[in-house]
Design a protein that fits this description.
alpha/beta, TIM Barrel, eight-stranded parallel β-sheet, binds N-carbamoyl-L-aspartate, binds zinc ion, Dihydroorotase
């Protein structure tokens, strides 16, 4: 039996939703993770400091008794966002990042940014105070192929924004391409990149071969195998630019298994065993600690967690329920498609 003990991990990109779904999924993340960057794409979105404070209270209420899980709040950047409100919410310690969704890029992104000149004041304020900008790195122009959205975003949006706003600290979230890996790796320490659990495991064949598999559909959409390999290489390399952001994004089955299914994979429950499998297969189990527990806090200028989490490998594969039942309906867990022998020691 092998074991590995890490400082308790954090999730630097998580969707917790609201109401009955929040109550159903919050305990799944709080079981293994100490903190998570909470995505603000509710309906309506979390735009102002006040909205984030109220949402944080709802999250704390949804946690199991005795949980010390800490939600790290974000604000949804709109063309009307007030730089002073952002600065205040950051100064109070409530808000740890601002999230940029290009309008129409993904689930609930209609309030996102169309004209980047309109958010210049906010970006400049963020550069001044060192508040990170988390970006959903996809363009949404209809003439751009969905598999090319990320690469086009880097060249036509991300790099120009960073050049125009020196000092702006940026996280390119849920990187899915070698282009994303190469771009992030070539920058200084004002640039980070998160990688999801599922993008380390699936490529686009998983979604489309042998029938359409809605539970593998997420955004950014999984790319071809060469890109997945580049992500595995980046995540397991020990490079401090890269850290875990699961993008665990629950939708009830009825919203996934339908003619126009929602994007999102649900990995909160079993991310740590899945990552142990991926890192071990890459011969890099020792680098799991950097990816899941150290590189994220270092980027966000927060302390590494004091508690620990131990993973054990056993002969018997681990098992999980196919779905978790929430008050909003059943949510199917991401299926890695291979046996996983790692367990979190309780
Ligand atoms: C996310 C969601 O459902 O909120 N979906 C997804 O596929 N990742 C939105 C997002 O992060 O793009
Ligand atoms: Zn997301």
């Amino acid at each position: 039996m092998s074991t590995i003990t890490l400082p308790r991990p954090d999730d630097w990109h998580l969707h917790l939703r609201d109401g009955a779904m929040l109550e159903g999924v919050a305990p799944e993340t709080a079981r293994d993770f100490a903190r998570a960057i909470i995505m603000p794409n509710l309906v309506p979105p979390v735009v102002r400091g006040d909205d984030a404070a109220a949402y944080r209270e709802r999250i704390l209420k949804a946690l199991p008794e005795g949980s010390d899980f800490e939600p790290l709040m974000t604000l949804y950047l709109t063309e009307k966002t007030d730089p002073q409100d952002v600065a205040q919410a950051a100064a109070s310690g409530l808000v740890k990042a601002v999230k940029l969704y290009p309008a129409g890029a993904t689930t609930n992104s209609d309030s996102g940014v169309r004209d980047f000149d309109k958010v210049r004041g906010v970006l400049e304020k963020m550069a001044e105070i060192g508040l990170p900008l988390c970006v959903h790195g996809e363009v949404t122009r209809p003439e751009v192929d969905i598999f090319d959205r990320e690469a086009v975003f880097i060249e036509t949006v991300l790099d120009p924004i960073r050049r125009k706003t020196p000092g702006l600290r940026v996280v390119m979230e849920h990187i899915t391409t070698k282009d994303g890996v190469d771009y992030v790796a070539a920058q200084g320490d004002d640039m980070g990149g998160t990688i999801t659990t599922h993008h380390l495991i699936i490529n686009r064949n998983h979604i489309l071969v042998g029938g359409i598999k809605p539970h593998y559909y997420c955004l950014p959409v999984a790319k071809r195998e060469t890109h997945r390999l580049a992500l595995v290489e980046a995540a397991t390399s020990g490079n401090p630019h890269f850290f875990l952001g699961t993008d665990s994004a629950p939708h009830v089955d009825a919203a996934k298994e339908t003619a126009c299914g929602c994007a999102g994979c649900f990995t909160a429950t079993h991310t740590m065993p899945l990552l142990a499998h991926v890192f071990e297969a890459a011969g890099a189990l020792d680098n799991l600690e950097g990816f899941a527990s150290r590189n994220g806090p270092n980027f966000y200028r927060l302390p590494v967690n004091e508690g620990t989490l131990t993973l054990e490998k056993t002969d018997q594969p681990n098992t999980w329920p196919a779905k978790i039942e929430t008050g909003a309906g059943p949510v199917t867990l991401f299926d890695p498609g291979f046996p996983v022998h790692w367990h979190v020691k309780r």
